[in-house]
Amino acid sequence: MPKFCEECGAPIIPGSKFCEICGIPIVDQPLPPPPEPPKSQEPPAPPASMPIPPVYIAAGIVVLVIIIAAVFASGVMSRPPERVVIPPTTVTPVTKVTTIPPTTMAVPGSGTAYDWNEKGIELNNIKGDYQGALYAFEKAIALNPNEEVYWRNKGIALYYLQRYSEALIAAEKAISLDPNYAGAWNNKGLYLKNLNRYQEALTAYEKAIALDPTDQTAINNKKNLEDMM
User: Fold this and answer.
1) Rounded-to-integer distance, Cα 156 and Cα 115, Å
2) Which residue range(s) make up the domain with 113?
3) Which of 11, 20, 156, 218 counts the most CB atoms within 10 A of its CB?
4) 156: how many CB neighbours lie within 10 A of its CB?
5) 193 occurs within a structural domain
6) Are 159 and 91 spatial neighbours (Cβ–Cβ below 8 Å)?
7) CATH of the domain at 135
């Protein structure tokens, strides 16, 4: 309510409806609205992003495919190589250096003794199929039982199958066909060693070295055996 009359300027008694001086009605003046609190200022909206043209998306996909293909080609994502377990002492089937007959092995199950020996070497050395190699060497022996190399190779397949007593018999058969066959003597020593017949094995290694002083395998086998004894 105003404190003074707007007409005559006389003071107004609170609660009066008329001015006590000039008599005009007193009209209540509405109070001014309270000031609005300051509004918080919102940060400016970020500029609208430009849409990516479809051609750029397609190009990005092509680049990604090329990168993945390059990674595979370089071998980065290729499977790790499998671990190959090699026996502490290995022996390898051999082919006797003779006049090699022309191969006639057209399909498995046919061929000369030489063909079967070659098949056995492949199965033993490359594929690790020792049972298959044994079968092939036995087929070679059936066709030519007087070839000492085939008997030696049969013993090697038996060795990998851990059939040491049978391997020893095969090695001794090879020696009976060729007493100067240093490789067969070395193998005999290896089989005797695995049968815990160490002294006999040592004698066989010494015989192999006497026949072929350059046979490093026999020399190493003899040294390893002597270290065990």
Assistant:
1) 18
2) 96-173
3) 156
4) 29
5) yes
6) yes
7) 1.25.40.10
Tens digit of each residue's pLDDT, the chain (229 residues):
445 556 645 555 566 565 555 556 666 655 445 444 443 333 344 455 556 666 667 666 766 767 665 544 444 333 333 222 233 355 555 544 333 333 333 335 678 999 999 999 999 999 899 999 999 999 999 999 999 999 999 999 999 999 999 999 999 999 999 999 999 999 999 999 999 999 999 999 999 999 999 999 999 999 999 999 8
Residue 78 lies in a domain: no
Query: Ramachandran region of residue 68, left (φ > 0), alpha (ψ -120 to 50) or beta?
Result: alpha
Q: Tell me if 79 is assigned to some domain.
A: no
Query: Is this prediction's pTM over 0.90?
Result: no
> Is residue 104 located within the same domain as residue 169?
yes
Q: Is residue 86 part of a domain?
A: no
